[in-house]
Amino acid sequence: MIISTGNEELDRRLGGIPFPSLILIEGDHGTGKSVISAQFAYGLLKAGKQGYIVTTERSTYGYLKQMREVQIDLIPFFLRDKLGIAPLNTSRFSWSSQIAKRLLYVLLNFLKRVRDFAIIDSLTVISTFSTEEDLMEFIKELRVLATLGKGIIITLHPIFPESLKSRITSEVDVYFKLSTATIGNRRIKIMEKIKISEGAIGSDTIAFDVNPSLGVNVVPLSFSRA
């Protein structure tokens, strides 16, 4: 099924969120990964789904506050126990491949108990210290969870060589690539649909910015991929 993002402008251009599915959102710092994944969470919650957001960059309070400041108010769902926030403080670990493997195992077991959906924002630090095979095994297990009816969304920085990225993207249903561009004097964000699940509709490239008053604001400009 296709579920609304909870943002009419974004729905018109994007076509909604495929559910269940495994979604990868990739982009550098400042390209809007956290905001887009939070917008997807908002849409899923509005549709009656329940889930968790695992944040490796913020506290529970910090995450909810930041999203509310850009008009994505997840607090009512959090207070009604429809949404859980699970902070994972990655700065506390002395990183090694064994620590990363253990965290992937713990994270996977946690995600198996999530009711409808889960968002990992972001998987970058753990992935950096994981072996290629450990990471791929984790991604394949997420693929299984999606097959069983869950929505799984992961955000990542573009840190992988093309060979590993190809292996990862072959396992996901949807792959969004985020970047930024300057049009005139305006800095905007670009979301490209590199891979989309069968039956989904919408534009291949979407331009947007994040407005404190309007939230995710689609920019009415036409872009085409090079």
UniProtKB/TrEMBL annotation:
Q: Which UniProt keywords apply?
A: ATP-binding, Cell projection, Cilium, Flagellum, Nucleotide-binding
Q: Which Pfam families match?
A: ATPase (PF06745)
Domain spans labelled KaiC-like: 4-220
In the UniProt record, does the keyword Disulfide bond occur? no
**Is ATP-binding given among the entry's keywords?**
yes
Q: Name one GO molecular function term.
A: ATP binding
Which InterPro entries does the record cross-reference, listed alphabetically?
A: KaiC-like_dom, P-loop_NTPase
- State the name under which the record lists this protein: Flagellar accessory protein FlaH
Q: Which organism is it from?
A: Candidatus Aramenus sulfurataquae
Provide the taxonomic classification: Archaea, Thermoproteota, Thermoprotei, Sulfolobales, Sulfolobaceae
